[in-house]
């Protein structure tokens, strides 16, 4: 509300100053004063309407966010659980296949794997 008070006080001071220093006739000055006051009142009303619309939009946005975010979160959690459900058996199958492949490798190659079943590449020794 400080802005509106400042706007009205400024308009009032400007009007009084205009009345005191204007080289117009009294009737012209009064007409200008009335028009200026009408303009200020109209501007203030438009600004109040815009702020009211903005507040209503914010409330609507907050309601929409409060409605959509929990639904979105629940859907994402459901998708993650479904992915885990589908991925776990596949991961198990892959681990079994890696173990089977390792068991069929020659002894020197079995020593070239780390704990996760990944092969460790080594540079060959110097060529003879």
Poorly predicted runs are: none
Largest sheet: none
End-to-end gap:
91 Å
Please count the helical segments: 3
Total beta strand runs: 0
What fraction strand?
under 5%
Rg, please? 40 Å
Helix content: over 70%
The overall average pLDDT, rounded, is 80
Quickly give the structural class: mainly alpha
Principal-axis shape: rod-shaped
Helix and strand sequence: HHH
Pfam family, one: YtxH
Protein name: Gas vesicle protein
Verbal overview:
The chain is mainly alpha-helical and 128 residues long. The chain has a domain at 25-102. It has three helices and no strands. The chain has helices spanning 2-21, 26-104, 107-110. Helix 1 packs antiparallel against helix 2. The longest helix has 79 residues, at 26-104. The chain is rod-shaped. It starts with a helix and ends in an 18-residue tail after the last helix.
Task: Looking at this protein, list some descriptive labels.
mainly alpha; 3 helices; 80% helix; rod-shaped; YtxH; Gas vesicle protein
Quick overview of this protein structure:
By secondary structure, the protein is mostly helical. It is 80% helix and 0% strand.
How are the secondary structure elements laid out?
Blueprint: H1 2-21, H2 26-104, H3 107-110
Helix pairs in contact: 1-2
């Amino acid at each position: 509300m400080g802005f509106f008070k400042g706007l009205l006080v400024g308009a009032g001071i400007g009007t009084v100053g205009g009345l005191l220093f204007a080289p117009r006739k009294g009737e012209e000055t009064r007409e200008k004063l009335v028009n200026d006051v009408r303009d200020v009142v109209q501007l203030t009303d438009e600004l109040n309407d815009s702020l009211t619309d903005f507040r209503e939009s914010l409330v609507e946005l907050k309601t929409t966010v409060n409605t959509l975010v929990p639904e979105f979160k629940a859907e994402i959690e459901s998708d993650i659980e479904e992915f885990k459900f589908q991925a776990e058996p596949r991961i198990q199958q892959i681990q079994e296949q890696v173990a089977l492949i390792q068991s069929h490798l020659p002894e020197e190659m079995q020593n070239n794997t780390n704990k996760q079943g990944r092969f460790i590449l080594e540079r060959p020794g110097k060529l003879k």
